[in-house]
Design goal:
The structure is a homodimer of 180-residue chains.
Chain A: E1 8-13, H1 20-33, E2 38-42, H2 43-46, H3 58-77, E3 81-85, H4 91-101, E4 106-112, H5 116-122, H6 127-132, E5 154-156, H7 163-176
Parallel strand pairs in A: 1-3, 1-4, 2-3, 4-5
Chain lengths: 180, 180
């Protein structure tokens, strides 16, 4: 039997390779096992149909967040637990998402925060290497800024925690806030 | 208490002024009264945040449908009754929406079909006048094609039915299909 939580968007922000999607997948799995409606949104899911025309300039990044926020807001409004994983390097864009979504439900900002060196060492998609070689421009953390969240609801040290531990921290927070 | 229906997208297609949004609003109201999660998507809702960059060329119309289909599919997958009102003049685009959404739930095509003369006489937004004067190009029914649905699930004659009657036809269909 599927259950409805209180509408919420959990917004994972952090560098490429920080573990945003990995943790979101584990949270999604755990919540789905409990019968909650959940929806993940991340680059791999939205790029083809929703944001394929956008690049990595500040303007395009902002449009990316605007479209995804629109979708997350609608889902939140329909009491779906929405798990957004976007680098979302600009504080203003994250604040925009928060403001929009809090009109209809809850917003949880999760700063996925291993050191840059760890992300670069992981380099799952080989992007850091290309960025260092100058083959990718506007790469967050290398040639583009990442504005750290000042007061995130949760900070995950994914270099020191297992994926299960990080996911548990998120779930505990949702329980504490009365969302689950 | 909110209830979940089986996931469905009800897709209203027809000329500008046909009554797509008017009927969708009435359906939404009736379903909300019964406690169902419902979400409307139409030009006025999505233009600002989701599709503001798109015009009325065939390519842009297709992108418009692609983005909205993406959103409708996610909502349908989360068992929200999704009411889409888009002129969607091209059969190929409507078939695309149907194919995508039927991967996760039900799809109901509603042809909102008063005569063009009725739509033009209503001219709620003054668009037909502008189109006749050549001030708007690519206007469906005047200077751009509208490909009528060949086998819609429902045809609404909004020039002969009241809004409540049209909405009832949609709701009866949803019941008959076992969706409500």
């Amino acid at each position: 039997m599927n259950k409805r939580a209180k509408g919420v968007t959990v917004w994972f922000t952090g560098l490429s390779g920080a573990g945003k999607t990995t943790v979101a997948l584990e949270v999604e799995k755990r919540l789905a096992e409990q019968g909650y409606y959940t929806q993940r949104l991340d680059g791999d899911i939205v790029r083809e149909k929703l944001t394929g025309d956008l690049g990595f300039s500040k303007e395009d990044r902002n449009k990316n967040i605007e479209r995804n926020t629109f979708v997350a807001k609608i889902l939140t409004d329909n009491d779906v637990i929405t798990l957004c994983s976007f680098i979302s390097p600009y504080e203003s864009a994250r604040n925009y998402a928060k403001k929009e979504i809090m009109q209809v439900g809850e917003f949880v900002e999760v700063f996925v925060d291993p050191p840059l060196e760890v992300c670069e060492k992981r380099d799952v998609k080989g992007l850091y290497k290309k960025a260092r070689e100058g083959k990718i421009k506007n790469f967050t953390g290398i040639s583009d800024p990442y504005e750290k969240p000042k007061k995130p609801d949760i900070t995950l040290k994914t270099d020191q925690e297992t994926v299960k531990e990080s996911a548990q921290i998120v779930i505990d927070h949702l329980k504490k806030r009365g969302i689950l």
